[in-house]
Design goal:
The chain is of the alpha+beta class and 296 residues long. 34% of the residues lie in helices and 38% in strands. Strands 1, 2, 3, 4, 5, 6, 7, 8, 9, 10, 11, 12 and 13 form a 13-stranded antiparallel sheet that branches.
């Protein structure tokens, strides 16, 4: 199942504030949703950097139609707080269970809270529908923004390492972003690493080239220099997935509320699970995993 590539203020509402906080994360995590890889022919040295980027992007979009499900360990750190979660993908969205906080196992109270949260999702139709809507929205937004890449940026060759080719990118001055998310996405420059043997996206690093203002700065802004880093790899033979996400975005929202998105995620220990896995079955697996972890 898709798992690549996660700014939501009209900035005057709570929804708009979430947009600024999460557009970069949502976009990139959705873009880097890992899917099963197929070998491709070696790239010709005559291919232009923009044509290579276009080919790789088209290839990634094709692979996003894959619907295999995976279980993996998520380690994340945000605002000085570290958490480890076990994630299982299902046809109705991903189910998670918290395993530890700041390198300590959950207390009995925290275990009960996790039990209640997972049980509510199993029995609440509205919660399940919300999960599915979130999955559909992330996938649609990610595909829409990813398709803009070849038009939003100008690419150039910048070296390589073995099968990896490095492309630098900068905003295309003739591109007109059609949305707030696209505008944040467009005002970046950085590097894209491509596995030229399989024509897969291996890394995407960038930073904001200028302060991004909303409503001429009255409604808020994102500071110049905001940075992101995403890594993708062939985590098991034939399957590419996101392995690292790092974000450091700062700014101000309406009424001078601070925006500070600092997070780092690592995804590891990938195992394939059934394509027809239900949420109830996923919950059973997570519960067994928790018991094993607590007995170590």
């Amino acid at each position: 199942m898709n798992s690549w590539l996660k700014a939501r203020c009209a900035l005057m509402s709570p929804l708009a504030v979430r947009l600024i906080h999460s557009s970069v994360a949502l976009t990139l995590t959705t873009i880097l949703l890992g899917v099963c890889a197929r070998p491709q022919s070696a790239l010709s040295s005559q291919v232009s950097a923009n044509d290579l980027a276009r080919r790789v992007i088209a290839n990634e979009l094709n692979f996003q139609d894959d619907h295999t499900n995976w279980m993996y360990r998520l380690e994340k750190e945000q605002h000085g707080k570290k958490q480890v979660e076990e994630i299982i993908e299902t046809k109705k969205g991903s189910l998670s269970r918290l395993l530890s906080i700041n390198d300590r196992p959950l207390t009995a109270k925290q275990q009960l809270e996790e039990d209640h949260r997972v049980r509510e999702l199993m029995t609440s139709r509205s919660a399940q529908q919300k999960l599915q809507r979130a999955l559909d929205a992330e996938t649609l937004q990610g595909r829409r923004l990813f398709k803009m890449l070849p038009d939003a940026f100008v690419f150039s060759y910048a070296g390589g390492d073995g099968d990896l080719v490095k492309l630098s990118f900068r905003p295309n001055p003739s591109f007109r972003p059609p949305s707030l998310e696209a505008r944040v996405f467009h005002d970046m420059e950085g590097e894209m690493w491509v596995d030229c043997k399989q024509e897969r996206l291996a890394a995407f690093d960038g930073h904001l080239t200028q302060t991004v203002k909303f409503g001429f700065g009255v409604l808020g802004h994102l500071d110049k220099g905001g940075h992101f880093e995403v890594r993708q790899a062939e985590v098991v033979p034939g399957h590419w997935d996101m392995t690292t996400l790092s974000l450091d975005i700062r700014g101000k929202a309406i009424l001078f509320a601070s925006i500070a998105v600092q997070k780092r995620e690592t995804h590891r220990d990938f195992q394939q699970v059934s394509d027809d896995l239900t949420l109830a079955q996923a919950a059973d697996i997570l519960n067994r995993t928790t018991v094993v972890a607590n007995n170590r």
